[in-house]
Specification:
Strand content of chain B: over 45%
Distance between the termini of chain B: 34 Å
Structural class of chain B: mainly beta
Largest sheet of chain B: 7 strands, mixed
Order of helices and strands of chain B: EEEEEEEEEEE
Largest interface: A-B, 21 and 21 residues
Number of helices of chain B: 0
Structural class of chain A: mainly beta
Largest sheet of chain A: 6 strands, mixed
Helix content of chain A: under 10%
Oligomer: heterodimer
Number of strands of chain A: 11
Order of helices and strands of chain A: EEEEEEEEEEE
Strand content of chain A: over 45%
């Protein structure tokens, strides 16, 4: 069964600190993995997209890693800011007759001053 | 210059009513989607259209009927609304693999 599991479910950190969010998936065949940021009351916004051959990709203070062998990905946030408070959703794309997206439940991050 | 727009942003209605949510994208993309995000924040794909043609139809009650008058618009009509339909509905458009989401429509069924 195609699944995407994220941990932790929620996280509270202090402004300026770093954090790492995890994503494990069982989607097969695998096409690509994305991380989205979803602010409260808004639609998700793409942070990174990685294909099978990519191990790491950065977008400013966000760095995503991918281990396609162990089917794990992480999103590392450096020097967190209050505006980083949001849900971070891991999405894995597979192919099931068509390109199919499987969404994780997200990690709710709260950055406190 | 909003890329993907949805109307209305909020929709409160009684059980049994019929309602529509509209989506428009000005990005020139061929593919559009409807997603449902429930109270547990899971996003689930409902439908996908490519150039006005239905290509994804997940297990969704047939009370939900998408309509794509042209490739820039994908509307969602819901008949006989039920309490369980309360959720946030997101429209998205893409050149695969990227996806651009609209702001969402929060539907509350009383």
């Amino acid at each position: 069964k195609n699944q995407v599991e994220q941990s932790p479910q929620s996280l509270i950190i202090l402004e300026g600190k770093n954090c790492t969010l995890q994503c494990n998936y069982t989607v097969s065949p695998f096409s690509n993995l994305r991380w989205y940021k979803q602010d409260t009351g808004r639609g998700p916004v793409s942070l990174t997209i990685m294909t099978f051959s990519e191990n790491t990709k950065s977008n400013g203070r966000y760095t995503a890693t991918l281990d396609a062998d162990t089917k794990q990905s992480s999103l590392h946030i450096t020097a967190s800011q209050l505006s980083d408070s949001a849900s971070y959703i891991c999405v894995v794309s597979g192919f099931d007759g068509y390109n199919k997206l499987i969404f994780g439940a997200g990690t709710r991050l709260a950055v406190h001053p | 210059d909003t890329a993907v727009s949805q109307t209305p942003k909020y929709l409160v209605t009684q059980m049994g009513n019929d309602k529509s949510i509209k989506c428009e994208q000005n990005l020139g993309h061929d593919t559009m989607y409807w997603y449902k995000q429930d109270s547990k924040k899971f996003l689930k794909i409902m439908f996908s259209y490519n150039n006005k043609e239905l290509i994804i139809n997940e297990t969704v009650p047939n009370r939900f009927s998408p309509k794509s008058p042209d490739k820039a618009h994908l509307n969602l009509h819901i008949n006989s609304l039920e309490l369980g339909d309360s959720a946030v509905y997101f429209c998205a458009s893409s050149p695969f693999p990227e996806q651009f989401f609209g702001p969402g429509t929060r539907l509350t069924v009383l």
